[in-house]
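ENTRY TYPE: paired fold submission
RECORD: A
CONTENT: sequence, then structure tokens
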Amino acid sequence: MVSIKRSRRVTLGALSAGVAFGALVIAGPAQAADGPAKPTVVLEHGAFADASSWNGVIEKLRKDGYPVVAAANPLRGPANDAAALRSVLDHVKGPKILVGHSYGGSVISVAGAGDPEVKALVYVAAFLPAKGETALELTNKFPGSTLPDALDPAPFTLPGSGTGTDLYIKADKFRHQFAADVPAREAALMAATQRPIAQSALEEKTEAAAWQDKPSWDVITTQDLNIPAEVQRYMAKRAHAHVTEVRASHSVAVSHPGTVAAVIEQAARSTR
């Protein structure tokens, strides 16, 4: 089930509403009756998923009065995707907590850098790359990922953009690889609606590491077949992140939404 380890750090509060630049925006009450306004939680999904992967987490956060934005991640590369996320951050006023799952961790690490309204970062089974690192090299830092054998590459050609390769997870391997602790029927829907990531995105070096000067929290998944737990622990340790370890698959936000929401709220409360 859930075992918990922690480290140390800090965060603040504010408000949000409206639909922004392809993001799904779900606004909850901005002002807590017993204190200052709560920060907006901005959720960034990773590869082989979409914004609906946060649905269970969103329900928990909204119930507790947090405004929430689940952004649409283009999955084209850290620089491109961080620019898209920044457009969402610019639209949402006030303090924000940035949350990234999987490859989405690379995106929030770039998008959150230098933004004074981003008060804390939460990584969920995610990459915490240093400047100049790639998702692929981090994945391979320790053994354990079985993702390469589960991938289904799909070449593409875009007018004006040349050619490339999108990566999917094969439908018959999706649940075992990505969502082993998610009910079979739900995992099948996730497989059918998965968003592909450009292969080049996993090979692109990140331009910044917001965790170097912002407090960070990290949900580490000990049964993860995409990003091995030892890789996650390595990144969390060097970021001095508060750590919560969960016996879960890579899809921990789907299988353990309450745990993920609780970590996000811990980050949000840290400076209130």
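RECORD: B
CONTENT: sequence, then structure tokens
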Amino acid sequence: MIQHLTHADYTTMPWANGKGSTVELLRAEENGGFKWRLSRASVVENGDFSIFPGVERNLTVITGPGFDLVGAGLHLPAKPLIPVAFAGDIPIRAENVTAPSDDFNVMTARGLPRSEVAVIAGQTQLRGGDLLAVYALAASTLNGTRMAPGDLILTAEPLIVAGQMIAVRLYG
């Protein structure tokens, strides 16, 4: 089964720290607890990231020049189309923001295996079995189905994808 989500299915909400907003694409909960979340946000200035105890994060800059993620003993460059993983409960700031950047975020409960995040450009085949979330960065196709920029497909089926997108393999 393939589930196709579009902008009409997403929810905009304020950041936990109140200094911006997030477009929540999809969220999964289990037994009343957080499991994982896929979202988009814009980083427009230097500033603190929200703290998410017990959560592993993965951020991929999808537009703009990127920025640096800086915390105590931590310096991670967040460059365009290169996924960056970090713990959600470590205080971290966006630094060296020279222009707005949009990012795609994957948050996973720490007790689960970390999600796999890959940026795809061109055509490839993705194995099925686990839950796959494929987010279109540009007009793309998935098993022949057209995806507009910003569409999200969820499935456990094997896929043939073509275009520019982010593929996330979620476990648990």
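NOTES ON RECORD B: Residues 66 and 79 are 5 Å apart (CA to CA). The first strand starts at residue 2 and ends at 5.
STATUS: closed
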